[in-house]
Design a protein that fits this description.
Layout (H helix, E strand, L loop, with lengths): L1 E3 L8 E4 L12 E3 L6 H11 L3 E3 L17
Parallel strand pairs: 2-4
Antiparallel strand pairs: 1-2, 1-3
């Protein structure tokens, strides 16, 4: 999983699963690590970026409580 290091259009740092079609360029993402699900990845991202949320395209299971739209 990766987190965007710059804000997306909605002012959040998106968490993406490897291979997501909306993952930012390498200069604008930070590797979070391997996780069994998006839940752990989002928690780790929130430790680093308080505004981190899951991408609805690649981590849909985690967007129920923190809806976000990828750019």
């Amino acid at each position: 999983y990766y987190v965007e290091t710059i804000f997306s259009v909605n002012g959040k740092n998106m968490v993406h699963k490897y291979g997501c079609t909306n993952m930012p360029e390498p200069l604008h993402r930070e590797y979070l690590g391997m996780f069994a699900s998006c839940h752990g990845a989002v928690l780790e991202a929130k430790r680093r970026y308080s505004g981190a949320v899951a991408c609805v395209l690649c981590s849909h299971a985690c967007t129920v409580s923190s809806y976000a739209v990828c750019h």
